[in-house]
Write a structure and sequence with these properties.
Elements lengths: L1 H15 L3 H8 L3 H8 L7 H11 L3 H5 L3
Helix pairs in contact: 2-3, 2-4
């Protein structure tokens, strides 16, 4: 599941043309933590997932569903 979320966040971030740093700033998350999330190394909380979804202007569902 973490791999799916990581892949979806990375894909959506790239679609928006954001760097990890830009997305982290928009989501109010440390840039290094964002890197760990995108690499599937940290278990992400619902709150952080919601912050990232808001910054990407997508739903949480878009980030957790497998394509």
């Amino acid at each position: 599941m973490l791999d799916i979320i990581a892949d979806n966040i990375r894909r959506k971030r790239k679609e928006k043309g954001f760097s990890q740093e830009t997305l982290a700033l928009k989501a109010g998350i440390d840039r290094s933590y964002m890197g760990y999330i995108e690499n599937g190394k940290y278990n992400i909380s619902i709150l952080k997932l919601a912050q990232i979804a808001k910054a990407l202007e997508v739903s949480v569902t878009d980030l957790i569903n497998e394509l």
